[in-house]
Amino acid sequence: MTGPAGAATAAAATPAVTARRTRWRRWLGGLAAVLVTGHLVALHLWPPGVLELDWNALAARWSRPWWRAWDVLMLLAVGGYGGVLLVNWWRAPDGRWRRERTVNAVCFALLLVAATVAGLLAVLTFSTRL
């Protein structure tokens, strides 16, 4: 849409859409926080700790389906949270130039997708046999 002077304006979101986005952001953010905290505690704080983290420790961890599912869910929650934040930021009607905002959003989306896909490939194709 364009405004009276030809400037790009964003369509106002309805209260129901805004509430739905807020719920998604809160749920995904809470889930991501719990999963990332559990990941950090299990890998970096519990004995043997970060100093003993190597191929064998990772193979032992990912040989159990529970940990693979944990890491996949963590990656999807963080990727989804980033996507929701991206949509909220891109649609914010603060008057920033639409082209600059679109370029930034596309770059962030590509980085987000690439990181999530790379993490999922690492988790799902990891072989415990060397």
Describe this structure in words.
- With 130 residues, the chain is mostly helical.
- It contains 4 helices and no strands.
- It is 72% helix and 0% strand.
Write the topology of this structure.
Layout: H1 15-45, H2 55-62, H3 65-90, H4 98-125
Helix pairs in contact: 1-3, 3-4
Observed structural traits:
single chain, 130 residues, 3 helical TM bundles of succinate and fumarate reductases, 72% helix, transmembrane helix, transmembrane, membrane, SQR/QFR_C/D
* Global geometry: elongated
Distance between the termini: 57 Å
The secondary-structure element order is HHHH
Report on the biggest sheet: none
| Helix proportion range | over 70%
User: Total number of β-strand segments?
Assistant: 0
InterPro entries: SQR/QFR_C/D
GO cellular component, one term: membrane
Keywords: Membrane, Transmembrane, Transmembrane helix
Short summary:
With 130 residues, this protein is mostly helical. The protein is built from four helices and no strands.
